[in-house]
Amino acid sequence: MSCADFKERLLDRALDSERGDAALAAHLETCAACRAELEAQQRVVAAMDRTLAEDVSAEPSQAFVSQVRRRIEESSAPWTWWPAWVPAAVGIALVALFIAWTLLRTPAGVEREPQVARSSPPVEVQPPPKQGSSDPDKKLALPPRPKGAGLSVVTAASAREPEILIPPGQMAAVWQLYDAVWSGRAKVLNSPPSAETALKPLDPAKLELPPLEIVPIVEGENAKGTSPER
Amino acid sequence: MDALVSEFPDAAVILDTSLEQEFEQRLADSAPLAFRVALGVLRNREDAEEVAQEAFVRAFRSFSRLRERDKFRGWIARIAFRLALDRIRAAKRRERRELANANPPPAPTVEDLAASREFRARLDRAVDALPQKLRIVLVLAAIEGHDMREISRLLELPEGTVKSRLFQARKILAEQLR
Question: pLDDT by residue (tens digit) across A130-183?
Fold first, then answer.
């Protein structure tokens, strides 16, 4: 093998003196030129390694750590230490709230599915006994619906709500009533009806309500489907 | 850090004191490493300090998310290395423009090379031209006390890979310097 064949291997040997290469070692024994070349390359590698080591031998300044602290304080907000899941949780909660709000806010014209009394007996209103009444069993009767009136609903002030059973097919009317009350077109009184407090009937043409059958409770008669006095 | 606490005494902030203390400890422990890695790339003390400090600021922001804290030294070394590369990129472009306009230098002897500024300039250019994966191994190996095992641990690479990459890096440099 000629010197040219060992040229590349000389550099490998210069970079790693422990690299085993019996053929190269044998050649170096007999070739002064290659030995000189190897020594020259070893000097270059040594100078290279020394320069690289010098580059990174310096210590940071005494103020290094304090400067890092200052930069952190200048650039950090207190929320920096919040766990990573906090912003994500807040985001998810906001999205959930938005979805809930969107679902609960039914657009106008969309009939909502009733949640109660899908098939119930006819409406029975059983208000509580009038306060101060001598006869607690005496039931309040709804005032007669004025002729031509659409609907007038009055509930009695009480610790418990009146029990209303919705007949099949009447839920749309109930929802419209609910909307009317909610929007202020109808009002629920907190006292038994009187001539002064009775609501003015709503315009049936506007409400477009089917007639709501209200059966006044006859005293002494236990209405079917109603619960006893609580 | 204490200033933050006193400034926002009533803030609904989860201020993990133990985390803060741990970061302080890591900062003191790893400051020389980050600085030297940056210096190995930038070869300028002021720039290296600034880059290493920036590396710690970034590390602080993400420290709470670092699951394996014992890998902090390798983490900060890589951050400092990348920031230093980013910093030097613009300077490198300028240097290339200057070199393109300069006359080619005469071929010096090996001895002259080792002793001259030209050697330094050629070495710097050769190091700058190294692929990143070789360069970071070279820089870490140049830092005193870093053997193959330590570099392997810092970079989370097998020792054989580290050794191979270091040999490759030095060979490329030596070829450029011949």
Answer: 444 444 444 444 445 444 444 444 444 444 555 667 777 777 887 887 788 777
Per the structure block, which two tokens stand in for A11? 């550099």
Bin A109: left if φ > 0, else alpha if -120 < ψ < 50, else beta: left
User: E strand or H helix at A123, and its extent?
Assistant: strand A123-124
Rounded to whole angstroms, how far apart are CA atoms B121 and B127?
Answer: 10
Q: How many residue pairs bridge chain A and chain B with CB atoms within 8 Å of each other? A: 128
Other beta carbons within 10 angstroms of residue B178's beta carbon come to 13
Distance CA A217, CA A126 (A): 7
Q: Is A148 left (phi over 0), alpha (psi -120 to 50) or beta?
A: left
Of the candidates A74, A69, A68, A19, which has an alpha carbon nearest to the alpha carbon of residue A42?
A19
Which residue numbers of A have CB closer than 8 Å to B's CBs?
11-12, 14-16, 40-41, 43-45, 47-49, 51-53, 55-61, 64-65, 67-69, 71-73, 75-76, 78-84, 86
Quote the tokens at residue A21: 């290469």
For B93-103, letters b (16+ CB in 10 Å) and e give eeeeeeeeeee
Question: Is the pLDDT assigned to residue B151 strictly greater than 90?
Answer: yes
Query: What number of other Cβ atoms are within 10 A of residue A136's Cβ?
Result: 9
Would the CB atoms of A65 and B37 count as touching at under 8 Å? no
Reported ipTM = 0.73
Nearest to B50 by CA among A75, A67, A72: A67
B121 touches chain A (CB under 8 A): no
pLDDT band at A220 (very low <50, low <70, confident <90, very high): low
Q: Tokens in use for A18? A: 């422990």
pLDDT tier, B1 (very low <50, low <70, confident <90, very high otherwise): very low
pLDDT in tens, A39-98: 999 998 998 999 889 888 889 999 999 999 999 888 765 545 556 677 788 889 999 999
DSSP assignments along A165-197, one per residue: -PPTT-HHHHHHHHHHHHHTSS---SS---TTT
pLDDT digits (tens, 9 = 90+) for A15-36: 988 877 788 888 888 889 889 9
Question: Which residues on chain A are in Cβ contact (under 8 Å) with B61?
Answer: 76, 80
